[in-house]
Amino acid sequence: MRIKCLIIEDEPLAVEVLKDFIKDVPFLELVGVCHDAICAMEILKEKKVDLMLLDIHLPKIKGLDFLQTLKNPPKVIITTAYHEFAVKSYEYDVVDYLMKPIEFSRFMTAIQKILKIQTTTESSPNEVLADLYFTVNKKKARVPLQSILYIESQKENIKIVMEDKILITRYSISDIENKLPDDFIRIHRSFIIAKSKIDFFDAQDVEIKGKAIPIGRNYRDFVRMKLGV
Q1: Which residues does the UniProt record annotate as the domain HTH LytTR-type (predicted)?
Q2: Domains and CATH numbers, the chain
Q3: pLDDT digits (tens, 9 = 90+) for 91-122
């Protein structure tokens, strides 16, 4: 599951720093950059946004004033050079308050808080999962989500390994990642696994039905959070 991020920031240097941070975290996806709240309102109407990285001193409408106008805002991390608004910002249920210049380690601490929130609101593991359909040899193949063990990227194709068969179809791993429920975790640029199918795991890999699947270095904190360790 990817966290879709919107940067709302009018300082070009700060924008570039946040863009680089997002690019370095595999499960974060940048969906837009806005220099003021008016632009952000339009993006929120058009796109799904999970997390706003919001500056306070914006032109036209200040960050906290903008936040007050939203009925059901995404999760919010404040990014600012002004410490005096920290207490007030938490009245708006922000997740964290980052002071500029922002260090990557501090940014990741805030992202870990987002992950904890997501983990506690995940669907019940007993929830009945639906099916997906893929084109294989010009026919539609039904793939019950509950039967998937893991998915492997193979250049322009993906290999879907199920309990009773293997299916190869022309699809990107990022596209299928966005269709999968929370039981599925991307643990490597080339692998998505079903959390409920894990038999063993450590810091380097997970094992499912005797298959060792590597955990990518950049995914390790995310995987630990998703597995609750």
Answers
A1: 134-229
A2: 3-120 (3.40.50.2300), 131-227 (2.40.50.1020)
A3: 888 999 999 999 999 999 999 888 877 765 55
